[in-house]
Amino acid sequence: MEKLKIAGGYPLKGTIKVSGAKNSAVALIPATILAESPVTIEGLPDISDVHTLQGLLEEIGGNVTFKDGEMTVDPSSMISMPLPNGKVKKLRASYYLMGAMLGRFKKAVIGLPGGCHLGPRPIDQHIKGFEALGAKVTNEQGAIYLRADELRGSRIYLDVVSVGATINIMLAAVKAKGRTIIENAAKEPEIIDVATLLTNMGAKIKGAGTDVIRIDGVDRLDGCRHTIIPDRIEAGTFMILGAAVGEGILIDNVIPHHLESLIAKLREMGVPVETGDDQIFIGKSNKYKPIDIKTLVYPGFPTDLQQPFTVLLTKAEGSSIVTDTIYSARFKHIDELRRMNANIKVEGSSAIVNGPSILQGAKVKASDLRAGAALVIAGLLAEGITEVAGLEHIDRGYSDLVEKLNGLGATIWREKMTEEEMEQLKSS
Ligand SMILES: CC(=O)N[C@H]1[C@@H](OP(=O)(O)OP(=O)(O)OC[C@H]2O[C@@H](n3ccc(=O)[nH]c3=O)[C@H](O)[C@@H]2O)O[C@H](CO)[C@@H](O)[C@@H]1O
Ligand SMILES: C=C(OP(=O)(O)O)C(=O)O
User: Which residues are noted in the entry as UDP-N-acetyl-alpha-D-glucosamine-binding (predicted)?
Assistant: First the structure.
């Protein structure tokens, strides 16, 4: 097991390149199950979620190659093998195996998913969608059993706007008989990316990226080549990092339109932001204004950037409020930031940040992926050395993070944890 060590307090400068989107990758890879010939996806991030999904596709008989960000999946020999736990629990997005395997084989047994612990993360809307398409769904000892004689298109209204349910229903519906309409669908860019892949495979989908998606089922899907979109959350993390410790940082391979809410909030704080076609420049700030943030579904401020943004707010003079309306308990990073001398308190679904604080290096633990990103930014900002444990969370979503940050002039490295540290981590 490894930890990250960061020598903080030094300004960063230069260009940093964004990788392919994790939340697209984890849906695009399961989507390949639906094809009857090889599918190639270009630009995938080198993250553990992608490797775990590769292993899961291989477990069900897929022939997968993955090199230099390009994955080719030959799904022709796949079978509906039960995947009750093990790798399935390592990531949230293993739930996409339910929709994809149901769509292709009309049956699947998949363990309940893992992923970041952000409070309750039910999948009732996914199941409601599968049932509306004609599947019988049961939960037996922590695994979801799905079976259908035939999948039939249906009108499905989502009670909660859910990224996962929208994509999962799309996966199950593309080969169903007749028309499926998803109402109150989520509108995240990753949904458009998955719909683009499926359309190139031969699916008939209209309205992805709006709140009504219409899918006309087809009998057969075939292979194609697809390039993934850039990761807006990784890009956003680098923008926040640039605002906190940068003296001019250019973020390359980004779609600025995907980050309008973050750009607006950074400008409101007084951070200079310039946008190009596929680049964003974050200038050096001299003074940071306190502001309030409320997370919302896309195109609102993303919950996945709330934790990193909290760190930036410790630099502002005055009081800022961060409210998470998607995951009201997504504040496990706050105790760790307090160890580093931040003045933040949590009240209900809000964190109140009183700044400015001079952060101090400390030994901290990432409880989840974006808590990890927040602690890395805090470590770069802090005086002295910061040690971040829980690296396995960060490795789920940030490709080559150490190399990328060192390229900006940061001093950050991975180090093996001692036996004693691992014991302490287990008991904490
Ligand atoms: C792999 C992936 O893409 N993960 C993202 C995805 O997670 P995920 O797809 O799990 O998140 P959802 O959009 O489904 O969740 C949004 C809200 O709806 C609730 N809900 C969801 C499904 C359901 O059946 N019932 C229900 O009540 C959730 O508890 C949450 O409060 O979107 C989240 C919200 O943008 C992001 O934080 C995650 O990074
Ligand atoms: C919550 C996240 O991921 P997951 O849904 O995969 O746990 C995230 O990417 O911030």
Answer: 92, 121-125, 304, 326
26 lines ligand 1 (CB under 6 A): yes
Which atom of ligand 1 has the smallest separation from the CA of 124? 24
pTM (two decimals): 0.98
Pick the CATH number of 22-227 from 3.40.980.10, 3.65.10.10, 2.40.320.10, 3.40.50.300: 3.65.10.10
Q: Give the H/E segment covering residue 353.
A: strand 350-355
Q: Is the CB of 280 under 6 A from ligand 2?
A: no
Residue 140 backbone dihedrals phi, psi, to 5 degrees = -120, 110
CATH of 2-19+230-427, one of 3.20.170.30, 3.65.10.10, 3.40.640.10, 3.40.50.300: 3.65.10.10
- What spacing in Å lies between the alpha carbon of 169 and ligand 1's midpoint? 14
Q: What is the pLDDT of residues 57-105, one digit of tens each?
A: 999 999 999 999 999 999 999 999 999 888 999 999 999 999 999 999 9
CA 237 – ligand 1 centroid, Å: 19
- Per-domain residue ranges for the chain? 2-19+230-427, 22-227
| Cβ of residue 170 lying under 6 Å from some atom of ligand 2 | no
2-19+230-427 and 22-227 agree in CATH topology: yes
* Run of H or E including 14: strand 12-17
- What are the pLDDT digits (tens) for 199-250? 999 999 999 999 999 999 999 999 999 999 999 999 999 999 999 999 999 9
Q: Helices (DSSP H) in 158-231: which residue ranges?
A: 163-173, 189-200
Q: Residues forming the annotated binding site for phosphoenolpyruvate?
A: 22-23
The contacts of residue 347 (CB under 8 Å, 6+ apart) are none
| Whole-complex ipTM | 0.99
Mark whether 224 is an active-site residue: no
Pocket test for ligand 2, best of 368, 395, 398, 399 (most atoms within 8 A of CB): 368
The CA distance from 372 to 155, in Å, is 39
